[in-house]
Structures are given as C-alpha cells and as structure tokens.
Design a protein that fits this description.
two-stranded antiparallel sheet, SurE, globular, SurE-like_Pase/nucleotidase, alpha/beta, nine-stranded mixed β-sheet, Stationary-phase Survival Protein Sure Homolog, Chain: A, 3'-nucleotidase activity
C-alpha cells in the first residue's frame, strides 16, 4: 500500500512522526510512506488552498517533502506532482496536536487535508489527539494515538463507507481521548457535537512599537457536548470516529424551504 501523509502542525511536528509510525504499520514491509507536509504551521486554515499564488515545494529526504502551503495544498501536491505517476492508495492527516471534535472540526487544517483526499476520490482519514490533564504532561502526550491509531485505520479500511461514484465521498474524523493509552475504553461512531457557547474570539494587544495586533482565541475545549457526540465520548475516554462529507447542504431544511419558496 502506498500512503500519503500530511498534517497542519508542520513538517517537524511530533504528531507527524506518530502518524508516520501508524502509516508504516498499515502499509507493511512492502508499502511506501510518502510525506508532503506544510513547511510551517498551518493550524486553523480549514480547507484553504493557495489558489492565488504558487506553492513552493522542496524535497527534504527520501519520500519526504515540505510545501509552503496548507494541508489541502500538500495533498494536491502529493497526488498531482510528487506521486503523479503512482497515486497513493490512502491519505492520512495528523496526528493533530489537540482535538478536532465539535466546532473545532470546522476550522481544522487536519480535516482539510482529509477532505481534499475525498474530493480527489481517495480514502482520507484525519487523526487528532485530544489534550487534557491526564495526558498533557506525559512523556508522549500522543500516547493514545500511537497505541490505537493503526487499529482505527485498519477498521475503517475494512468496514468504513467511502461513498459511491457521483456523490461526495466520505472522509473520517478520528479523535483520540485525553487519557493515557491504557485508559482508552474503545471506539465510538459519533456525530459532530457542539460545545454550548464556545466560539472563537479575538484578543487585542498593543506591541511596544504602538502597533495594535489581534490574537485569535478559542473557547473551553472541555465543555460537554450532546451525549454520544464526538467531544462527549472523547471526554468519557473513547476514540470518536465521525464520517463526514464535503457537502454543506442542510438536507433537513430543504423540504420546508422548498415549500416556502413555491
């Protein structure tokens, strides 16, 4: 199996090393792992692509490339440039430093990489590691993802739905709970949740030069979401697995809207 890996934390991020190990276990002895990751951190860029300017790409070593762009740019570069002659069989994105559960999923560059894989007709899986008091100070805070990541990917490859021709393909959002590996309780298929009252905000600061800057701040990541949804099961110690599509249509609202517009 030929696997393309990327992330949004950057080419030198420790989570990418964890993902490389997961991908190596999945690919097996005869497989190939190709890395195309952002040269610099791209957290929060969602599914951004560098549509109005070129993306520089550099080969850093065997099967290892850095691109000055977003995770989606990296997937495009991997599929249509680096691996143009032999496309990958699977795209993995992560392991993100921090969760991409609930509303965080909407901003995630990690999910942007997996979404681009799906739009290109390839299986895409985003993997993220929730942080909290039980794992943030571990020698390896990615311990849960490292121990359970390959098993999750295998199960999705064996049993996941990926979509039919003519419809938006499914990609998967996987979040590992904020606990040590030994305390992971199992896997849960879960819908995307919503943390009540949690939104991104800006915090103004004035530099010594007198210039004014704004820092974007997120909200409390440990607020409970609806029972059974992604962040809720993560905080209970389970790995959440959420099937997603790049279809933003609110299908439940269509019938009433159609009636109202007649």
């Amino acid at each position: 199996m030929r696997i393309l890996i990327t992330n949004d934390d950057g080419i030198n991020a420790p989570g990418l090393e964890i993902l490389h190990a997961i991908a190596t276990e999945i690919a097996g002895e005869t497989g190939e792992i190709w890395t195309v990751a952002p040269a610099f951190e791209q957290s929060g860029v969602a599914h951004c692509i560098s549509y109005t300017h070129p993306t520089m790409i550099a080969e850093l070593g065997p099967r290892r490339f850095a691109a000055e762009g977003s995770p989606a740019d990296c997937v495009l570069a991997g599929i249509h440039d680096v691996l143009a002659e032999n496309p990958p069989d699977l795209v993995l994105s992560g392991v993100n430093r921090g969760n991409n559960s609930a509303e965080s999923a909407a901003y995630s560059g990690t999910l942007g990489g997996a979404m681009e894989a799906a739009l290109q007709g390839l299986p895409g899986i985003a993997l993220s590691q929730y942080f909290g008091p039980k794992n943030a100070t571990l020698d390896n805070p990615f311990e849960a993802a490292a121990a359970h990541g390959a098993d999750v990917v295998r199960k999705l490859l064996d049993h996941g739905a990926w979509g039919a021709r003519g419809e938006y393909s499914i990609f998967y959002n996987v979040n590992f709970p904020p606990v040590p590996a030994a305390e992971v309780k199992g896997l849960r298929a879960a819908p995307q949740g919503l943390r009540p009252g949690v939104t991104h905000k800006v915090e103004p600061q004035t530099a010594p030069s007198g210039r004014r800057f704004l820092w974007v701040r997120g909200g409390d990541q440990h607020l409970q979401t609806a029972p059974g949804s992604d962040a809720a099961v993560n905080l209970e110690g389970y790995v959440s697995v959420t099937p997603m599509r790049a279809d933003f249509t609110a299908h439940d609202a269509l019938p009433a809207l159609g009636d109202a517009l007649r």
